[in-house]
Design brief:
alpha/beta; Undecaprenyl pyrophosphate synthetase; six-stranded parallel beta sheet; 6 strands; about 15% strand; globular
């Protein structure tokens, strides 16, 4: 019976996905999608595997996801792979996870299809991880594909603090006094120093695994984003799940804070 159900799904899902794609209004699709890739550890526990296997399964789902985005004309994707809080995990878990991140980022760069932009507190990462991220960025600098922000060692509060620090340093070099800066400072001045400067803010933010928390992801940029929470763990997140997220986004009436 189980084999029959699987066979039916193999036949039915492609047709269902094709119908979803046909019904997606091209003019209401997001330009920038942020994803909180959550649930790797719980996926591993459910599968009776070790944590590293869960992270490897999650990493294996990144390229397919970027291909789905590419197919639908999404221009910017931000993937949250590791938070600053995650850096406090035990070495037994963190060390393999960092190696997996290094490998997947290098593989994405080698594909030559997407432009990799590391974002986060790279100074907090081991040298090998920081080097892998910088090399991937340099290798894909001239690629005219989807811009992929790889958030590693990332925290929303840290990003805002880094932006303010960068802004102050810039104006100090320019000779601007604190009083002058206070008189002209607005939100755009800070936005110009964020990790995502020059990019559109995320239209849609997806979090997998059923958790319904922001967790500090793109705190500044997501002020007007639409959120979609999916029950599937990230390694199990399928194209049909993504299409459903896009469908939900397309029918919403965005108010941009009004």
């Amino acid at each position: 019976m189980g084999s029959l159900r699987k066979a039916v799904k193999r036949v039915a899902y492609p047709a269902y996905e094709a119908r979803l794609v046909r019904r997606l209004p091209a003019d209401r699709l997001p330009k920038h999608v942020g994803v909180m890739l959550d649930g790797n550890r719980r996926w591993a526990r459910a599968a009776g595997a070790d944590t590293a296997e869960g992270h490897r399964a999650g990493a294996a789902n990144i390229s397919p996801f970027l291909e789905w985005c590419e197919e639908l004309g999404i221009e910017v994707v931000t993937l949250w792979l590791l938070s600053t809080d995650n850096l406090n995990r035990s070495d037994d878990e963190l060390t393999p996870l960092l190696r997996i991140i290094e490998d997947v980022v290098s593989e994405l760069a080698e594909a030559g299809r997407w432009r990799i932009n590391p974002m986060g507190a790279l100074d907090l990462l081991p040298d090998s991880t920081g080097r892998a991220l910088k090399e991937a960025s340099a290798a894909t600098r001239d690629v005219h594909g989807v811009l992929v922000n790889v958030a590693v060692g990332y925290g929303g509060r840290r990003e805002i603090a880094d932006a303010v620090r960068s802004l102050l340093q810039h104006h100090a070099r320019e000779g601007t006094s604190i009083e002058e800066l206070a008189g002209i400072l607005d939100v755009e001045h800070i936005a110009e120093h964020l990790y995502t400067r020059g990019q559109p803010d995320p239209d849609l933010v997806i979090r997998t695994s059923g958790e319904q928390r922001l967790g500090g992801f793109l705190l500044w940029q997501s002020a007007h984003s639409e959120y979609y929470f999916c029950e599937a763990y990230w390694p199990d997140f399928r194209r049909v799940d993504f299409l459903r997220a896009l469908r939900a986004y397309a029918i919403r009436q965005r108010r941009f804070g009004v």
